[in-house]
Amino acid sequence: MTNEGRPRPLDSYTQIGDLAESVRWLLQRALLPLLILLVGETGILVIAGSRGAAAFGMISLGTLLILGLWRWWGIGLPIVPLIALQHLIAYGLPIVVDHEVLASYPPELTSKAGLEVLLFSAALAAAWRFGMGIFHPATPASYSLQAFQQDGAERLRRLGFSLIVGSTSYLLLQSVGLLDSLYALLPDGSSSVLQALVSATSFCGFFLISMFVGTRALPTLSRGVFWGLLAANGFITASGFLISATSALLASVLIGLFWSTGRMPWRYLAVVVLLLSFFNLGKFTMRERYWGADGETAVQFTLGQMPQHYAEWAQASYDALTTSGPATSVMDSRAGSPKGQSLLERINNLQNLLFVFDAMENAHVAPLGGETYTLIPPLLVPRIFWPEKPRTHEGQILLNVHFGRQDLGSTFNTYVAWGLLPEACGNFGERFGGLILGAWLGLFFAWIENLTARKLLLSLEGFIAFTFLLGMANSFEMVASVLVTSIFQSVILIVVASAPFVERTVLKRPEGPAP
Known about the structure:
Helix content: 55-70%
Number of helices: 21
Largest sheet: 2 strands, antiparallel
Structural class: mainly alpha
Mean pLDDT: 82
Radius of gyration: 23 Å
Strand order of the largest sheet: 1-4
Low-confidence stretches: 1-6, 294-298, 324-340
Number of strands: 4
Distance between the termini: 13 Å
Strand content: under 5%
């Protein structure tokens, strides 16, 4: 990074650690305003007599602790500050807006939830700092893409557009039914492998090109093609009323825009949040109309049908937005009937933590003792080799059934999200859940950061690191079984697809000014 705080131009010598400088530069300027903001909001909550004031103060303290440590000691992939901000939003925002869930539980339970987040944050920060002391950056040798030894930027642009065009073309062919005959010839489970490969290809392609868009290194026509392909990709991906895949795609662009400039793309973020928030309101209504009883999409819409269904979806979202009454509850936990859901509900993990604490204290439900984690190894077996493999959400199902949130039958209609911290508490109980999860993640993140800091961005390691970062960015509502299997599948596919095109390389940036 230059003295003015601007990142170096992207080229074949760019390392992951170089791009992480953007995050450190931003934190250096943002920590004091964030401190003032969080202290001020805590004071406002105290004056207003909010039952969540103490909890918000503890959550804020944990966030500032993590961000401050990473600002001084971070060297690579910024997973740790990402997790800190994710938990501030998922657990602190419901308190700021005085969400109705706070009135459902006694104030002392809310304070216990805030303390749990603080313990998690402190354990993560301490374990990460300890790990940064015992782990050391790996050698700069990377399995780089052979074509980028020279003229890397131009080749990178061509690669990025090739990945985007290829993945979007696959979705278009699928949406008009031209791939049905291919699926019929493949073994059971192959379609999920192909879908995961296309998703990984799409994420990497849009991430690469968004970095050029952020630095304005693309001509106007190329930028227009990029935004058009992004809109087409998202339009088709979300047509089955599943927003998570589209959210991950949009997040990959957000990371690329930020990573290339060191500045948050606020206009892009505002548009994305507004669109996702609006369509999220009518998502369950559309699922009730078109999904089968088993919770799977029974109708695969063709490209010609999609505009009509999007118009219907927009109307359902508008109706949910303008209808008075309790339309924001996620679902009736006994009946398992999904209702309208706002984006705030989607990212509200505080309600999950309060629910599990209440179940253990008042209903005397015993913790699972790690059972949801022991389910993970079998789930890593590809479905093509084990067509009858348990559902990826098996850990989530076990939590919901064990704690009485759903019966087994209702889990085939909808999944109720948990998040990593509520899952840990459901397994190991209050206090121990946050401490164990924070310590384990802190050490693991320190190892990942040291392993990838000196690796080339345009390398197999760079693509894997980005995939992991994107997975963690989208992990706020996942349990470990879903998170681990999704990242594992993407990484395996990236390794297999990239193997013929990489070679072990050590590149050193030439002396002198950047080109």
